From TrEMBL:
Presence of the UniProt keyword Hydrolase in the record: yes
NCBIfam families, alphabetized: 3mg, PRK00802.1-3
The protein's name in its UniProt record: Putative 3-methyladenine DNA glycosylase
Cross-referenced InterPro entries: Formyl_transferase-like_C_sf, MPG, MPG_sf
Keywords: DNA damage, DNA repair, Hydrolase
Alphabetical list of SUPFAM superfamilies matching this protein: FMT C-terminal domain-like
Class in the EC hierarchy, top level: hydrolase
Family that this chain belongs to: Belongs to the DNA glycosylase MPG family.
PANTHER family for the chain: DNA-3-METHYLADENINE GLYCOSYLASE
EC number per UniProt: 3.2.2.-
Regions that span the bilayer: none
Length: 243
DNA sequence: GGGACGATGGAC
DNA sequence: TCCATCGTCCCC
């Protein structure tokens, strides 16, 4: 499936909606506000292009979609958008392709997994045009099926915490590096992404800065279902203490 | 080849 | 608030 088709299919889903982006004169930070129906999406980021903005659109339309793996089904409640080379300084693909980010530059609808802090795995869905290297980080969700299995994998934690955070979500799904580069849309890999059982409406969605990123820390490309208990807490980037 | 640091999570 | 722990990537 071509990348552009995948992105478009998300946009045409039941949870498609339009937003507009503005910069607050008071705080200087970016925020997103719902736009009138039928209004095309304005792109206000001076350092972003239209393709990059489409990643953010794809990310928020993924809320409510369900990711299935290893007998556990998770309804996505929190995601983040990351754009490609030379566009988004917070993206792994920002400086161009590397061995690690090869998958990001490949076909849409494939999983990009990466190892972080020497101990955790995180899961992205590649999207956008071929070579664009855009991806959506799956940050959190609600376990809607395979609860016992998820509990077994995550240990003794409250159910709301089973997939409350990108690394926790990966553990609950039981996936690792083996999923890297596999399709999440055609059933040939360990992961399968399916449309919402409970659609998410625009009024339910909040947007804000991405968690823990140092660069572009004010870009509101984190999207979550407002008030959902499975959404992870916001934490700003903390610079490493120098020895 | 060295070293700084991270799209985190869990213990205090 | 602190820090485990190691792959990645920049830089010398």
């Amino acid at each position: 499936m071509p990348k552009t088709t995948l992105a478009r299919s998300f946009g045409n889903s039941a949870c498609s909606f339009a937003w507009e982006w503005r910069q607050s004169a008071k705080s200087g930070g970016w925020f997103a506000a719902p736009a009138r129906a039928g209004l095309s999406e304005p792109v206000d980021f001076p350092w972003l292009d239209a393709a990059a903005a489409e990643v953010a659109h794809t990310a928020r339309t993924l809320l409510g979609w369900e990711i299935l793996a290893g007998g556990v089904r998770i309804r996505l409640t929190e995601v983040e958008a990351y754009a490609g080379t030379g566009v988004d300084p917070a993206s792994h693909a920002h400086r161009g392709p590397t061995p690690r980010t090869t998958v990001m530059f490949g076909p849409a609808g494939h999983a990009y997994t990466y190892f972080v802090f020497g101990m955790h795995w995180c899961l992205n869905v590649v999207c956008g045009a071929e070579g664009e290297a855009a991806a959506v980080l799956l940050r959190a969700g609600e376990v809607v099926d395979g609860l016992d299995l998820a509990r077994k994998r995550r240990g003794k934690v409250p159910d709301r915490d089973l997939a409350r955070g990108p690394a926790r979500l990966v553990v609950a799904l039981g996936v690792d590096a083996a999923a890297n580069g596999t399709s999440v849309v055609d059933g040939t890999g360990p992961l399968l992404l399916t449309p919402p059982t409970r659609p998410v409406t625009p009024s339910e969605v909040s947007a804000g800065p991405r968690v823990g990123v140092a660069a572009a820390h004010d870009v509101p490309w984190r999207f979550w279902i407002t008030g959902d208990p499975t959404v992870s807490p916001y934490r700003r980037h903390v610079p490493r203490r120098r020895s």
